[in-house]
Specification:
The chain is mainly alpha-helical. The protein is built from four helices and no strands. Helix 1 crosses helix 4.
């Protein structure tokens, strides 16, 4: 049971890492898909870790300035990375 909890924790940490990478990347692809402002979400990085404080004004303004589809696509890309790296898919408990 402890091994399973450790594996879930590792998966959650990997998911967070991939999410941070996806949000921090400043690529021409994001701009080409009409996703300006996606790179501004790096101001939210500190608020994506367990136990973090509520997001500050800079993070909320950055999030407000990005189309929801762009954020969702970035999350989908981040979620697909483990498979592309021949790693097990991420499963995250949202409870």
């Amino acid at each position: 049971m402890a091994a399973l909890k450790s594996l879930v924790s590792l998966g959650s940490q990997a998911a967070l890492l991939f999410l941070l990478i996806a949000l921090a990347m400043q690529t021409k692809t994001a701009e080409a898909q009409n996703c300006p402002g996606l790179n501004n979400l790096t101001s939210c990085q500190a608020f994506l870790v367990p136990g973090a404080a509520n997001p500050n004004t800079a993070c909320c303004n950055a999030l407000r300035g990005v189309q929801h589809d762009c954020v969702c696509n970035a999350l989908r890309i981040a979620q697909s990375l483990p498979t592309k790296c021949n790693l097990p898919p991420l499963t995250c408990n949202t409870n």
